């Protein structure tokens, strides 16, 4: 499977406007493995998960197949960034306590990735992947976002995006599952933040490349009166899936 780069063009926008995952998520992940020596954040993107994981682990390697994403990732103590595909991290066998994949599994050759994960995970290690769909705010705003998602930019979503809409059901590994508590992302956003977030979507960039215009501009004009002034809380439920190695 050839790497499909849907984010390098808007890597800086992605780094600036993607929502942050909750601290409780990282604390729970660390609590599920017996040692916290070494973690691998695969497809790290802007590096936000890697930086947070580093507060719980001695060392983190964060990889991404996109050099532009790595260039826009923020530095943090204990985090080493590398440009590498998901199925070839360059890590040593049986060296990793925790593998994380945040909002990226749908881009992978999952068979190759799972085979590689089995090699680099310690017998006591864990794989955790998570994703999120559209945010929740209020019915009128949610309806406009859903209409935009399926309407003007709908044909420009990469085929792999369907796995997110299906909650990853068809691409998860057949490994022993670890039950997890519910987690949510929450952000206090101004209107400019939500516009920046929408502009980071891969389908928006593909639309702009095809038509030479920004589809978010029209949506923003329709959203602005509903949003109003000041800060509003935006919320996404996280879909988290965690696994142990088979026959561990």
Structural overview:
The chain is α/β, with parallel strands linked by helices and 248 residues long. It has a single domain (8-244), classed as Rossmann fold. It is built from 10 helices and 8 strands. The chain has helices spanning 11-17, 23-31, 48-53, 67-71, 110-120, 139-150, 162-165, 191-199, 202-211, 215-227, and strands at 38-42, 59-64, 79-83, 96-102, 121-131, 177-178, 183-189, 232-244. Strands 1, 2, 3, 4, 5, 6, 7 and 8 form an 8-stranded mixed beta sheet that branches. Helix 4 (67-71) links the parallel strand 2 (59-64) and strand 3 (79-83). Helix 6 runs antiparallel to helix 10 (215-227). The protein is globular, with a radius of gyration of 18 Å. The protein starts with 10 loop residues before the first helix and ends with a strand. Residues 6-11 have low confidence and may be disordered.
* Class by SSE composition: alpha/beta
- State mean pLDDT (0 to 100 scale): 91
Shape: globular
Low-confidence stretches: 6-11
> Number of DSSP helices?
10
Quickly name the level 1 CATH class. Alpha Beta
Secondary structure elements and their pairing?
Blueprint lengths: L10 H7 L5 H9 L6 E5 L5 H6 L5 E6 L2 H5 L7 E5 L12 E7 L7 H11 E11 L7 H12 L11 H4 L11 E2 L4 E7 L1 H9 L2 H10 L3 H13 L4 E13 L4
Parallel strand pairs: 1-2, 1-4, 2-3, 4-5
Antiparallel strand pairs: 5-8, 6-8, 7-8
Which features does this protein show?
248 residues, alpha/beta, Rossmann fold, 8-stranded mixed beta sheet, globular
